[in-house]
Amino acid sequence: MMTKMRGPTEIALGLGLFLGLSGGAYGHDPVFGPGPHVLFEGGTEIHTEFHRSERGDDTENEAAIALKYGLTGDWVVGLELPYQFVKESGERNDGVGDITFSTKYRFWRHDTLGVQESMAALLKVKPDSSNSGGTPSLGSGSSDTVAGLTYGYESLKWYRWASLRYRYNGKTDEGLHRGDKLLVDLAGGIRLTPPNYWKPDTVWFLELNGEIDERAELDGRKLSNSGGQEWFFSPGVMWTVRNFAVKAGVQLPLMSDLNGDQDESDYRARLEFEWHL
């Protein structure tokens, strides 16, 4: 019969599981902002997520599946395919969104007793797949790129993250260039009870997410009802059981300064499932 480990032994096991196995099943990232978490070499992550957002009379629901693979202990690549359910101006449109290719490279890591800090660079590329034919597509009609940096601090109790990303939106065949976007994320987390490998683990998050949009342009002419900024207060939670995790959170508007006649966001919600192999 196995004896339950306590005291220094249990703490040492927790340190090894949560800090030593970098990029393993217990890597924690915020719900809405990115973190520097990567997979172990040869590791695979199956990731599904569900988003819902409301803005005035418009709603958007999205379900997506993503696969990630650890090329090394510091470098991960992945792809994501979404399916969207959009209601705009009283009309509903459903269809496949644009596939996204992503990569993240952790270029710095510093370990001290009970603490790990790290930084990573990330890149996402979304080609225009709206003209691929077949299944109806709700793609953006342009090729877009997101690049950024992220920092994370992880201990057995406290977490903190910061990230800065820039999204460059390409031009559609109709000459529309949606405004580029700057994304700012600050987050903190806390684990209220010590970790135990044989029991579910819970980490609570609190995030500040900002989106600063440039005005859109059509054939070189700036559109007045576009651009501006929105900031969100975002509580969330992550439950982990060995190599399976569930994350959930909601973004609540904190401040909005949109140009022209635009509806402000009412809320956004996200639910994610991760399985590491």
Helix content: under 10%
Count of beta strands: 16
Task: Decide which structural class fits the backbone.
Answer: mainly beta
* Main β-sheet, spatial strand arrangement: 1-2-3-5-6-7-8-10-11-14-15-16
Main sheet characteristics: 12 strands, antiparallel, barrel
- Rg is 20 Å
Mean pLDDT: 87
What is the end-to-end distance? Answer: 28 Å
Order of helices and strands: HEEEEEEEEEEEEEEEE
Provide an overview of this structure.
The model is unreliable at 1-25 (pLDDT under 50). The protein is globular. The chain has one helix spanning 7-20; strands spanning 44-55, 58-70, 75-88, 91-96, 100-112, 115-126, 144-155, 158-169, 176-177, 181-190, 201-213, 217-218, 221-222, 228-241, 244-258, 265-276. It has a domain at 7-34 and 108-120 and 128-268. With 277 residues, the chain is mainly β. Strand 15 and strand 16 form a beta hairpin. The strands form two sheets. The chain has a twelve-stranded antiparallel β-barrel. It has a three-stranded antiparallel sheet with strand order 9-12-13, with no helix packed on it.
Compact overview of the structure:
It contains 1 helix and 16 strands. The chain is mainly beta and 277 residues long. It is globular and about 55 Å long.
Characteristic terms for this protein:
single chain; 277 residues; mainly beta; 12-stranded antiparallel β-barrel; 3-stranded antiparallel sheet; 1 helix; 16 strands
List the helices and strands and how they pair.
Layout: H1 7-20, E1 44-55, E2 58-70, E3 75-88, E4 91-96, E5 100-112, E6 115-126, E7 144-155, E8 158-169, E9 176-177, E10 181-190, E11 201-213, E12 217-218, E13 221-222, E14 228-241, E15 244-258, E16 265-276
Antiparallel strand pairs: 1-2, 1-16, 2-3, 3-4, 3-5, 5-6, 6-7, 7-8, 8-10, 9-12, 10-11, 11-14, 12-13, 14-15, 15-16
